[in-house]
Design goal:
- The chain is α/β, with parallel strands linked by helices.
- Helix content is 27%, strand content 27%.
- It has helices spanning 19-29, 68-79, 86-91, 139-145, 195-199, 201-205, 210-213, 244-260, 281-298, and strands at residues 9-14, 37-42, 95-101, 111-119, 127-128, 150-157, 166-173, 179-180, 188-193, 215-222, 225-232, 239-240, 263-271, 301-306.
- Helix 1 packs antiparallel against helix 2 and helix 8 (244-260) packs parallel to helix 9 (281-298).
- The longest helix is centred in the last third of the chain and has 18 residues, at 281-298.
Amino acid sequence: MNIKRPQEIPVYRFDEHNEAYFFWQKARIEGILKCPLDLFHVDAHADMARPSEFRTPLHPSDSDVADPIEYFRTFSRDELSIGNFIYPGVLSGLVKNVHFIYPEWRQFKPKRAVIQIASVFGEGKLIKYPAWLARETHQGSVDKALPDLKTFSYLAHPVGRMPRKRKVILDIDLDYFACRDSVQNNWKYRLEITREQYLNKDAFLSDGTIPFSQLEFSFQQDDQRYSVVISFRKTKDQVHLPDKNEIERDVDTLVNTMVERGIKPALITFCRSRISGFCPAEYGGPIEAVLLKKLADAYPIRLVEESSSPSAPSPAGNRR
């Protein structure tokens, strides 16, 4: 008697969320993602910032791309930020509808909207968000000017309002469980400068526009080398740092709810948010271990690929 084994669910782990788009494209190219699916975006942030323009096209022609996987790896790194990767997923035909599943501690209000997105002449470079266009009414003009027009539902809700019986792309950010929103307090950039620039620091700091930049400049001398450290002006630390028991409860609630409601992930993208710092470093490892174990107990997952960002992520933009 032949017993059919359940199909394994690939899990892609990475450091920052702009990489999710690359792994969705990779899953499509490799035949894992066969059609657009609803996205379950489990995160402390909506990540629905709207890109307006791309330097390289979102829809490359086959003749222009020797290696599609490397093309989308580069596109995700160079064109996307950690706060704007979902809209490209919709426009590319990877994501059907978006469910932003936010943690209870956020105290957000549920939201529902119908949104449209397209690119001018379907080139995938200049992105538009029409107020509302009905193909039935404007068939000819829409097909010509915005041939890749997509209409999708956006729903924001806590885990308790998760719908039932869906095959989905499951996208989880570890900052859902522990989060530091005031990440810019920890971002610093050191630039080497000349001796002349160092000696003229007082003139530079007297510029009346500097207070409006929300930046701080610290000029330093080390022997015969000169530098300036640029940092963001400190704000009140905004954090959610739960204890181990609360994290385990939240993991159990998330995964148990998915199982009880018949949610079947086709693939799982798994973001650590550790370079940006949205998930504090001391929390990331323990949360990842607990979450992977719970997912493995509930689903036939397979750890497929792990990516480590070579550099800091693109600016977050409006992550909320």
